[in-house]
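Tutorial, part two.
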Amino acid sequence: RRAGATLVFMIRTSQLLALTWSLTAAAAFAAAPADPWVRIRSANFELFTTAGERAGRDLIRHFEQVRGFFLDVFGLKSTDRKSARIIAFHSDKEFAPYRPSKAATAFFQSGSEHDYIVMSSTDSEHYHVATHEYTHLLIGQLGGPIPVWLNEGLAELYSTLEQDGDKVQVGIPPPGRGHELLRGRWIPLDTLLSVGDDSPLYNERSRAGMFYSESWALVHMLNL
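Running the prediction step on this input gives:
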């Protein structure tokens, strides 16, 4: 990996270590009235949240449903090479110290013993972000490194999974992506395909929108 990407990984890992120490301390003093953290376990996930037990249980239920979709549709026997920990904050302000880039509202990070998904909110309107990050986790566990445009394009494609009776719809445009493609200046295809983890097109809020939108559109076309 390039030096820039390695630096991003190191920074993100140190942030997660700091957050893990905070969560460990919270677990040790769970009885303290001022402790804002709630710990919730399901069959396949462990969630820490400051947004309250009800919101946490709804979010972890969503992750279980998304996991079930991938196992059923793609015939996977298991996605549990490493246990998954979800850290969900109550607000963007709480999330800000751990934000890996200005464009991020959540992120996935692989670890030696656990894979982490860190989110800025548990609100239902952020469930597409939860699905996006779980897709990254699944790709990391099953497929290894792939180009950034493909990784993000696949995560965007599946981010809007929607239950429709006994079926699941795939391919609904993520919020804002179509509008971005209609009003913005497109990134040349050769540039899009060469974007790396350290590229401003991927990390700067004012430029990342078009990168995500084009990556989604390309993967949508190739798949559907």
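The first strand starts at residue 38 and ends at 41. In part three we will examine how such features are distributed along the chain.
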